Amino acid sequence: LDTDIPADRGIILLAYSQDSLIYWSDNSITLMPFNKVTEEKKRFEFISNGWYVIKSYHTDSIRSYTLILVKTQYPYENTFLVSNFHPELKLARSTELLTEAQPGSFAIHDWEGIYLFSIKFSDNELRFLQLERYLTPIMFLLTLLALFVMLRAALMKIVNRGTKNATLLGFALL
Questions:
Q1: What is the mean pLDDT of residues 104-108?
Q2: Which of 8, 51, 89, 154 is the most buried (most CB within 10 A)?
Q3: Rounded to whole angstroms, how far apart are CA atoms 141 and 59?
Q4: What is the 3-state secondary structure (H, E, C) of the chain?
Q5: pLDDT tens digit string along 154-163?
């Protein structure tokens, strides 16, 4: 197998023929044997300093697994080892990964609707400043008001009543 998946994408491919590992796309994890029991029970697992979503595919002779990195988690951290969510998920560092649902957390399910894990955001990150909360609707209303003022000014310039009605009809059709 030849894959074009870059290592920084957080995706690892494994292929087994019977009980033998015949292909692996990355050496970043300790390879563990996947069997039928593992395949049926585990959809989200901690493997070698990382939490992975596990997707299995199988044919008559080959069982393959895709491991998708959600978060790295090291027992200790330094400048080189930092526990973090995968960058493409764009989650804040303070976001928590939970293996069981808790109040205030958001459940993540797989492609079949089976619960995988939950994430919980820090209360400080979900708060908006008072200005940010009201600025968007105020700007929308001011833009709408400016549009009405410009429309009225354009209609006032039209002196012929027949042309005025045609212009109004044209704006209504837009």
A1: 90
A2: 51
A3: 59
A4: CCCCCCHHHCEEEEEEECCEEEEECCCCCCCCCCCHHHHHHCCEEECCCEEEEEEEEECCCEEEEEEEEEEECCCCCCCCCCCCECHHHCCCCCCEEECCCCCCCEEEECCCCCEEEEEECCCCCCCCCHHHHHHHHHHHHHHHHHHHHHHHHHHHHCCCHHHHHHHHHHHHHC
A5: 777 765 566 6
